[in-house]
């Protein structure tokens, strides 16, 4: 136990040391929010990957989805690598870096305001980010705390408090430069940890190797080794699209493109980030799919079956103690990176877009930086409160917040990058449609209104929040161009400001 604590203490000292080092290099709001747009390919790639995957993946998604879908859960890993990472970099990376630099914007709400000439959209977007990133952050806290409880026998509450303090210090001290540098270090830990986790779980007597594990799962339920798993195609496709396509509209992911040094960085970062994604998600979902070999029924927490305890218990049973501590550091690494991205984006959006952008335009840079740091503390405090009073399981929290934010932003942002015919009304219609579908779906699942037949309710509940989160992203992709086609287009002067007069002239010619 002493050696476990020494490893964790050394890890914490490393993180805080790097944060203090970057603190001396963070002097402006550009430094704090986007690293002064000076981040190279490896740090950009690892920062994208470590922000993408957190304790929600390792503890929540991998366990619950693996238990329900079996080996078909690996489709999600493939989707995350190809759609959520490779295509995100190919389609969004270069264009985001180009337009954000030309418009001199630091946040997604600022981009939406500049692209659609709508200050109200900037305010609305910043409020969405702040409100719905709190449950997302809380889900990360919850997942990590379950693992602390299993490996160190630390009460859930104390683990939450420790994580809150560490995250607050880590981010407030260093800003985006600390995030990028530390994410690179954390990414290395994550890769080593996931490879060792797969090795020891597959080699455990309960699994007995890849082939025997496959045969044992098939004996329990042939559906666990089928291409689509027991819940069927709708469920697995919803999860693939929710967790993959969602990165295209999540502000903390898009922000990684804002900080890229130049266009030459993107090709190498794309390949590195895709490989990283495939290794991390492939390992996590594969281990989760083997959970039936370790448990006959779901573990119980607080008197109720909890899929969130599957992965912590597998790690505790199958891995040597020191390797289990490394897995703890893996999850801690992923969670710290995700949390720092969420906190930085939400706090900077409120400070820059809401307070300075709408309430007090004369706020100077020094006070704006102070406000961002204060809001970082407020944000992690609210996330802690929600994690201590959780309304549901990790998967539900994450799916609700991820689906709502991505549903609101994906279509307006994507069309805003490429669609010169996209109008302000079209963007508003897309944002509102995404919000309505995601929140309405959660309401239907949670409350089961009497006017909907029980059969439909059971089907929707089986598909779960991921189905509505996916629908919230897809439907606005049709709504935005339709409404834009019906409403007046922007003037050539505005489009020239956004896309560059040279690009417009070339297309007109």
Helix segment tally: 21
Q: Bin the strand percentage.
A: under 5%
The CATH homology group name: Sodium/glucose cotransporter
Q: How far is it from the N-terminal to the C-terminal residue, by CA?
A: 71 Å
What is the strand and helix layout of this fold?
Blueprint (H helix, E strand, L loop, with lengths): L1 H22 L5 H6 L6 H12 L2 H15 L4 H30 L4 H9 L2 H34 L3 H48 L6 H11 L12 H13 L5 H8 L6 H25 L10 E2 L2 E2 L4 H9 L2 H39 L5 H24 L5 H25 L5 H24 L6 H10 L1 H22 L5 H8 L1 H8 L1
Antiparallel strand pairs: 1-2
Helix pairs in contact: 1-8, 1-14, 3-8, 3-11, 3-12, 3-14, 4-7, 4-12, 4-14, 5-10, 5-12, 6-7, 6-16, 7-8, 7-13, 7-14, 7-15, 7-16, 8-12, 8-14, 8-15, 10-19, 11-14, 14-15, 16-17, 16-19, 17-19, 20-21
Short overview:
79% of the residues lie in helices and 1% in strands.
Describe the structure.
The chain is mostly helical and 509 residues long. It has a single domain, classed as Up-down Bundle (Sodium/glucose cotransporter), CATH 1.20.1730.10. It has helices at 2-23, 29-34, 41-52, 55-69, 74-103, 108-116, 119-152, 156-203, 210-220, 233-245, 251-258, 265-289, 310-318, 321-359, 365-388, 394-418, 424-447, 454-463, 465-486, 492-499, 501-508; strands at residues 300-301, 304-305. The chain has a two-stranded antiparallel ribbon with strand order 1-2. Helix 4 (55-69) packs across helix 14. The chain starts with a helix and ends with a helix.
Task: Looking at this protein, list some descriptive labels.
509 residues; mainly alpha; Sodium/glucose cotransporter; two-stranded antiparallel sheet; 21 helices; 1% strand; globular
